[in-house]
Design a protein that fits this description.
It contains five helices and 22 strands. The chain has about 300 residues and is mostly beta strands. It starts with a strand and ends with a helix.
């Protein structure tokens, strides 16, 4: 077992090197995301088909549908290509999103989502170098590309909706071929605020779907469910079934991330556990923060 001192925000903490086990610190110095911006909420996105008349023929049309109800605020969409989508075309779209901030996608209302009349739309190229933005009911939009925690590429679209349009039902119209089966779309919404430009230009702070999630100044990790504070020296042990194998003693004042628990036991990762008793204090983050971590991992 190796000890070393680490320095975070001007403070020190003992670090126990046990296969990725890293303790946290007690006195945070960072501003938390909850102070900087409200949390986004997951919004369901479904794909809707409709038979319409086009050029004298009945044809099937489809679009991704988002129902915001009576909400106003900032809508954010994340688009992932699937293995059914043409790789070369997907590469071009990601490159355009990154370089020109434009992929030719439009947000429309429920009256124009499937009949292609394009009443009340926004083009997601508001912050492009040479934006050509048709502004009707929606004022602006943005597009950008990124990579999630799993290494998957996606395109991000977003728009601030400041007035209620047609009962809050919107459709995402996309270029030819970008339909159900070739794209996966996830929706998120910031209630009652306009964080559109901040989300785009200050990603780490204002877009926790991409940036880190902070809990008392320390990054909350994917899979983490809580935090352990050692109040009195307590044994750390490896658990194999019901058999405990002593490893060492955790010292009072140390802090550790918790990833799982068993009855009367807390896991600090790497197969190591401590007893959940009066020698330790266990804290859990809010559900909102846990949801943010999960969103970021998507």
């Amino acid at each position: 077992m190796n000890f070393k001192k680490v320095f975070v925000a001007g403070l020190t903490a003992s670090t126990l090197m046990l296969g990725g086990l890293v303790p946290t610190i007690s006195s945070p110095q960072k501003v938390e995301a909850s102070v900087a911006t409200p949390y986004p909420k997951s919004m369901p996105v479904e794909y809707e088909w409709k038979s319409i008349e086009e050029y004298g023929q009945n044809v099937e049309k489809g679009a991704f549908k988002i129902d915001l109800g009576n909400r106003t605020g900032t809508l954010v969409l994340k688009l992932y290509t699937t293995d059914k989508y043409n790789e070369g075309q997907a590469n071009t779209l990601h490159a355009n999103a990154q370089r020109y901030r434009d992929i030719g996608a439009f947000l429309t209302d429920k009256n124009s989502g499937l009949d292609r009349t394009y009443k009340g739309l926004v083009a997601f190229n508001r912050y492009a170098k040479y934006p050509t933005l048709p502004t009707l009911k929606y004022k602006s939009g943005f597009t950008n590309s990124g990579t999630n925690a799993k290494g998957e590429r996606f395109i991000t679209l977003g728009v601030h909706i400041d007035n209620l349009v047609n009962d809050g039902i919107y459709y995402l119209n996309m270029p030819n071929g970008m339909n159900k089966g070739t794209w996966e779309v996830k929706g998120y919404f910031y209630d009652n605020v306009n964080v559109e430009e901040r989300v785009f230009n200050e990603i780490d702070r204002y877009f926790p779907l991409l940036g880190k999630v902070w809990w008392d100044g320390i990054e909350l990790k994917v899979g983490q469910i809580g935090r352990l504070t050692v109040l009195k020296d307590t044994p750390l042990y490896k658990l194999d079934g019901d058999k405990k194998t002593y490893s060492r003693t955790l010292k009072a004042g140390e802090f550790y991330r918790i990833y799982a628990f068993k009855p009367g036991k807390l896991s600090v990762g790497g197969g190591y556990y401590v007893d959940r008793d009066s020698k330790v204090e266990y804290q859990t983050p809010s559900k909102a923060k846990l949801n943010l971590v999960q969103m970021r991992a998507e």
